[in-house]
Amino acid sequence: MAATKKSYARQAGYVSPPQPVDAQPVLSTDAWDTHVHVFDSSIGPFAPSRAYTPAQATLGQLLSFGSSLTTDKPGNVVLVQPSPYGTDNTVLLESLKALHNAGAHYARGIAVVDINEISDDELQSMHDVGVRGLRINTQADGRSADVEALRDVVVRTASRIRHLSGWKIQLFCAASVWDDLFDVILDLPVDVIADHMGGLRGSSKLEDSHLHPTKQPGFDALVRLARQSKVYIKISALYRLWQRQYQIG
Fold first, then answer.
1. In the record, which residues are listed under signal peptide (predicted)?
2. pLDDT band (50, 70, 90) for residue 179
């Protein structure tokens, strides 16, 4: 069955259009895609300050692609708010509603918000349509994270969502941040998802090419947090670990 895969930009610029790919159903009915984005300009506009402009990748294309991998539950997905939409979660929320209306009642989402501006009622409304966490993204614009500011945001976010069942913080950060936030994360009342392999790098992307990847800053802290069941490491975006840029498609 023909399906569609997306291509991704590594930096600001245009993302090439989706390319057709043939695939046979290969996944069991209890398999999940835990990190996927929907880009649909017919639902909502991109943020003017976005770091890149993606190609359209609609919910219909996602379900078509999912149907090529599993014939039973292509809607077993976690939609993650991508940086081109900023804190406007319209596309995410409308896509979750459409999935639930189509029978994919367990589809879930991870939103991006301004924790200082959003109300408890708005968070509850997100919960009602399937959102189960908030993404804190320090990597989208390529700038170094202000560790003190990040620590404050993480603590305040955890405090706001601690009473929402099943909610987690999804943190997209450089690997070294796990050293900086180790004690903070240990004390959080919610679990943390380490986005995209926790920001770890392969040897080709390390500043010291002779450094073994397991010796890079943050590696030990991330592993220790995972062993203490405080962090789930999301195995996604493996292409970010290497220097060579492949077209994902």
1. none
2. very high
Domain of 172, in residue numbers: 135-238
**Residue whose structure tokens are 């589809």:** 107
Q: What are phi and psi of 87, to 5 degrees?
A: -100, 10
Inside any domain, residue 23: yes
Asked if residue 151 and residue 106 are part of one domain, the reply reads: no
Tokens read off for 123 = 């968070």
CATH number assigned to the domain comprising residue 70: 3.20.20.140
3 state DSSP class of 52: coil
CA distance 70 to 75: 10
Q: Are 136 and 153 a contacting pair, CB within 8 Å?
A: yes
Strand, coil or helix: 86: coil
Residues 80 and 143 in one domain: no
Q: What is the pTM of this model?
A: 0.83
Would you tell me the crossing angle of helices 120-128 and 147-161 to the nearest 10 degrees?
Answer: 70
Do residues 225 and 162 both lie within one domain?
yes
Three-class DSSP category at 11:
coil
Q: Per DSSP, what are the bridge partners of residue 169? A: 134, 192
Spatial separation of the C-alpha atoms in residues 108 and 105, rounded to whole Å: 9
Whether the pLDDT of residue 52 is over 80: the answer is: yes
Q: What pLDDT digit, counting tens, does each position of 133-150 carry?
A: 999 988 754 456 789 999
Residues in the chain: 249
β-sheet bridge partners, residue 3: 21
Domain count, the chain: 2
Kindly state whether residues 141 and 183 are assigned to the same domain. Answer: yes
